[in-house]
Amino acid sequence: MALYIGLMSGTSLDGVDGALAQFDGAAITTLAAAYIAFPPSLRAELMALQASGDNEIEREALAANQLAQHYAQCVAELLRESGRAPTEVRAVAVHGQTIRHRPELGFTRQTNNPALLAELCGIDVIADFRSRDIAAGGQGAPLVPAFHQALFGKEGQPRVVANIGGISNISVLSGDGRVIGFDTGPGNVLMDAWIHRHRQQEYDADGAWAASGKVIPELLTELLKEPYLALPAPKSTGRDLFHLDWLDTRLAVHAPAAPEDVQRTLTQYTAVTLADAIKAYGGGADAVYICGGGAYNSVLMSALADELGNQVLVASTQALGVAPNRVEALAFAWLGYRFSERLAGNLPAVTGAQGERVLGALYPR
Fold first, then answer.
1. pLDDT tens digits for 54-72?
2. Which sites bind ATP (predicted)?
3. Domain positions in the chain
4. 16 labelled as ligand-binding?
5. Is 302 one of the annotated binding-site residues?
6. Which CATH fold would you assign to the domain 144-320?
């Protein structure tokens, strides 16, 4: 039996989710969960670092130091909530904040300062989970399908687990041990950027703003022409592709539209691209379980259910006993556990790597 903390800050750039998990053989038990929001200044700097700019090496290093402070706050909250001491936790597994993801060029960049985090927490830190898979010829993403199989896979029951964070990805769990997974396209990233531009809100709570608009069919058709969507798996994507400039280019060829109609269309875009991927690769699964922030957007969930049809159950992972906002943090706790046991953390069938690899790098306390 061993305790691990997983920390995840994703494409939405809103903050860090943390989970303290107990591993006992194949059994995984969540002991505590916590969330630490990023201040607007850090969020703005992390957003700016998504593209090249002046003095970016120093700016990234300073942002990494700030991230480590927030990660340490999350660890402290998890320990406080669970009543555990740092010495009881074997390791903190932390993803870092992706600011570049270019597997086609052989690299991915997750801003982080794991050495500082180890110093602040007094716990071993495991970081840099993606680069080894890329070194082995893989995409370095998504990494969560292996965990989805471990946590949600059930023999004889094909199902799909879809994570809707900034980017959407799916894990097709065949029911016989085989897993397919890839990034399907945008999750919340375009919706978040659009509502921030027009209403200065970080996200569209429960899809309320989108619900006030209507889908623009011609714009949806234009968005669906994105070549990434037609690429075969394995594949991965991020803000390097889907961002406001990408959207503005496509809006420029259409008549001016009400901002709320664009928001509703972007919500439909996420639903359609996700549904198309599930239909193409789902392999007879009759249930789709959603995790990530998108699970809390009822407009998006309803649109996805409509796209998939009445024969497919669409529910959040809460139906499987795990809150949607805890799954990714738990996934990195699991990856930390796998690293410590010198077990592979990737699935070559998902990432395209040449083989299974132990993922991560250790920063001892």
1. 999 999 999 999 999 999 9
2. 10-17
3. 2-140+325-363, 144-320
4. yes
5. no
6. Nucleotidyltransferase; domain 5 (3.30.420)
